[in-house]
């Protein structure tokens, strides 16, 4: 994974400066970034730095938690965005199909030191016979939890919190739900 950025207001491309660590930014500057994974652009970011604005790369639709990353804006595979069950944050949620390989993947930038952090997963659904779900949690391609249980919530929402390792700089967090039809992922929080 690589992150390319500009500080002159132009749109970033794979020809722009590669992000390798902290850099100075003058007040009033707009930083634009392009995240590329496996040769594909997966996320575009933009942030203006000034005295009247803060530093948050987020849509602002996370129900008062600017650290939340919405599932409907993540990289989805065999998962659809839905909004029929109320109570979600953002513009919807990711709903899993009854297929192998279904997953949702987020890009997570860490400007601090590598180490352990907490991952909060907000989810919903009943699972087969109301028994909930089991999902795999991968961080940077390494399986951290091969079968993390997500107990049944019915039509409601719940959270699970687990410790995960996170590296300095660019990270990916993937939740895989093989054959978990009906599982709804709303958001994650890494803190």
From TrEMBL:
Transmembrane segments: none annotated. Residues 67-191 form the CBM6 domain. It comes from the Bacteria. InterPro entries: CBM6 (IPR005084), Galactose-bd-like_sf (IPR008979), GH29D-like_dom (IPR059177). This is Chitobiase/beta-hexosaminidase C-terminal domain-containing protein. It comes from Haloferula chungangensis.
